[in-house]
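Reviewers of the previous submission asked for a worked example of the structure-prediction workflow described in the proposal, so we include one complete record here. The input consisted solely of the amino acid sequence. No template or homolog information was supplied to the procedure at any stage.
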Amino acid sequence: MTDKPGGPPEDGVSAEPDSFQRRLEAREFAVTAEIGPPRGADSSPVAEKAALLRGWVDAVNLTDNQSATVRLSSLAGSVAAMSAGVAPIMQLTCRDRNRIALQSELLSASALGVRNVLIMTGDHPRQGDHADARAVFDLDSTQLLEVATAMRDQGRLMSGGELSPPPRWLLGAVENPPAQPDDAAAADRATARLSGKIDAGAQFVQTQFVFDVPAFAAWLVRIRDLGLGERCSILAGVGPVRSHRALAHLATIPGVSIPERIADRLGAASPGQLQAEGEKLCSEIIAQLADVPGVAGVHVMAIGAESSIPGILQQAGLPARSPQPTRQALRGRS
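From that input alone, the workflow returned the following structure tokens.
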């Protein structure tokens, strides 16, 4: 992956590839994690969680009003993560903004030194805490990927207006692997969606939770056969199951397949044992995925339990990362 044109931010943040980008470029196993910004006008909880992960992950995702509920913005969360010395991946959904606001948010992210953006269509407002809110969906994720790619590579807005300087990002997307390993039609649909997003400009993709590693590996064979793995880094979604209620909920999510042996294993654990068993299972899955050809890394989703992630990564046998300098240290170099 090559860096894209665009001048360095004027606030002194380095324009060099960050730790996440360098890891992907070197084709080394990358680790990202997810942080949900708080419901409140204080970014310090994000910085505190990012500090716990510093030296263990290559980047953290900052969700964009996840589950259609009002939170601190992903852009504010990204700045807070940088202040703690962790590279951010700013999530941006199409649900709440029209094309003018989306392009403005993208420009603002680049201006503030956010070098990774993950673009999503987003959940419908009816699923969140403002069910009567009007959904925008002026663009979908594939369309916005095309727009962001043109802004970066051509220095052009959708209107044709010129950008000076153009922004710079690594662009990402999400995808749901086929839930059933023997469902050829679902595999075709997932592969077609992924191909469309890569054609639109996605350079990395994070998937839904993976519990069935052999089925996921079989889907990656299809992806590699089409040459898509050479054009985009695939990070498998993983996470610890911490309650029987969470296990039941995961089984209802599109793209999540929980083999019977895993459901039985977690279901047999007592409430007091399940947290440790879920973390152990997550570490085992990460270790298995690290040996699967075509897996560029893992994306660990443990919102509300971010402190468990370093231990999970240790159990998986993954080495600690070299801590990134904090934003204040970067400014001191300018």
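The mean pLDDT is 90. We consider this example representative of the routine output the project will generate in years two and three.
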